[in-house]
Specification:
The radius of gyration is 27 Å and the shape is elongated. The chain is built from 14 helices and 16 strands. The termini are far apart. Bound molecules: adenosine-5'-triphosphate and magnesium ion (MG).
């Protein structure tokens, strides 16, 4: 009786070419995420069917929640195009759903098999009548039913399904283009990365590492976070760009008034990220900034940081509350990793009194005090690209090496200019 799932795609308000592109991309993603399982697909213009044995259900559902652009799905049952068989299965589904508590429903029939002798509205009415006779706890409400029983009369049989379970929604990656996410190891930036992917962006992560000023465990967090995020990515892998930030970090600490440390550090990060955009063929920088969360995220601060670039910076979490961010972080399983107690370059040497209203003018003045451009260029040049696969553990901490040696040793690494 259980036959598989009906999958509905996301934002089909898209028109023309874009819609075709969307459907092609989401179909490819569905295939990719379900790869290796024994399934049969039937792709149609705005939906897809996937058929498989019931014991695969939990694995299929788990993987479908990694498909960006998948709007919703429903479990489907199949039987002969015989109204009594259909009624029996429908009753079973309804009883599972309602626990026989009073509620309202309607039947909606789609007759794809035009040779089927009863018209769809007649069929709905007849079936509803039969169901009501055996399930007195139900009432029909055609305008605002609590649940809808869908019947599709197809050439090869009758398909029956009820409730729609929500998928991720959004757009399929990489339909939205490419962006670089500044991934710190904190709670916010992985959530920002996830939301960007949900909108169909292909991402690469950029991490500014200041070893040995900061512990190697911070870099470990970043790799572990990327391994979780890779679940939503194209080909289930994400590239992490490790930028050596120690030299600039030290320069800033010794040259810039304490209150401006964070502002200048951020401006340097943004300058480096801007340089990386072109090398990585990406069009936007994404951060985990959330307005008002800390001194460096007042709009005056964000504005002073923004002034260091002409590049597009997106801040998906700008208006989010922390608790809502944490809820998403739990859902995507990044929260516990982010919560490990290791600091990155922005959480050590946090100034006691950071400037809450820094300005572009003052920033320029303090930056004038040292030759930052050479160091920015050098950092871009020395950036290492590291590929992280879905759920893969890359243990760099237990090796106890210097971060860059470990990264270099790994056969996956590539230099930024390669
Ligand atoms: P998060 O939880 O993402 O670290 P946060 O609230 O701690 O955010 P900040 O530390 O002020 O915020 O950083 C703001 C944003 O700047 C981060 O969300 C991230 O996008 C970027 N960022 C900060 N530090 C780094 C770093 N070392 N490497 C890469 N990006 C960073
Ligand atoms: Mg942080």
């Amino acid at each position: 009786m259980f036959e598989g799932l009906l999958l509905r795609f996301g934002d089909l308000t898209l028109k023309g070419k874009n819609q075709k592109y969307f459907v092609r991309a989401v179909n490819a993603l569905i295939r990719e995420k379900l790869e290796g399982l024994d399934l049969r697909f039937d792709f149609q213009h705005d939906r897809a069917y996937v058929f498989f044995e019931p014991q695969l259900l939990s694995e299929v559902v788990k993987r479908l929640h990694y498909v960006t652009g998948l709007y919703s799905y429903s479990k489907i049952s199949k039987c002969e195009k015989d109204i009594d068989q259909i009624k029996d299965i429908s009753l079973q589904l309804i009883e599972e759903e309602t626990g026989k508590l009073p509620t309202t429903f309607k039947v909606e029939t789609k007759r794809a098999d035009k040779h089927f002798p009863i018209e769809s509205t007649d069929f709905s009415r007849q079936l509803a009548g039969k169901i009501l006779r055996e399930a007195p706890f139900l009432k029909v409400d055609v305008h605002d039913p609590a649940m809808t029983l869908h019947i599709e009369l197809r050439i090869d049989g009758a398909y029956i399904y009820m409730n729609q379970i929500k998928g991720l929604g959004g757009f399929p990656v990489p339909m939205g283009g490419k962006a670089l996410v500044l991934l710190s190891g904190g709670i916010d930036s992985p959530v920002a990365a996830f939301l960007a992917m949900k909108k169909g962006l292909q991402i690469e992560c950029v991490h500014f590492e200041s070893t040995p000023l900061t512990p190697i465990e911070s870099a470990q967090k970043v790799l572990d976070l990327a391994a979780k995020l890779a679940r939503y990515a194209l080909h289930s892998q994400i590239k992490v760009l490790f930028v050596p930030f120690t030299a600039l970090h030290e320069e800033i600490i010794s040259n810039v008034p304490e209150a401006y440390n964070i502002t200048i550090m951020r401006r340097m990060m943004i300058r480096i990220a801007t340089g990386l955009l072109k090398k990585r063929d990406a069009d936007a920088i994404i951060t985990g900034d959330s307005i008002g969360q800390v001194a460096s995220q007042t709009i005056e601060s964000l504005s002073a940081i923004q002034s260091s670039t002409n590049a597009l910076i997106l801040r998906p979490l700008a208006t989010y509350d922390k608790l809502d961010i944490i809820q998403i972080a739990r859902q995507i399983e990044t929260f516990e990793i982010s919560n490990r107690p290791f600091s990155d370059c922005c959480s050590i040497y946090v100034p006691k009194n950071p400037a809450i209203r820094p300005t572009d003018r003052h920033s320029h003045k303090y930056e004038f005090g040292f030759d930052f451009q050479t160091k920015v260029d050098q950092a871009i040049k020395d950036t290492i690209v590291f590929t992280v696969k879905q759920d893969e553990v890359t243990d760099i901490v237990s090796k106890g090496f210097i971060l860059r040696e470990v990264l270099h040793e790994n056969t996956q690494d590539e230099k930024i200019d390669s």
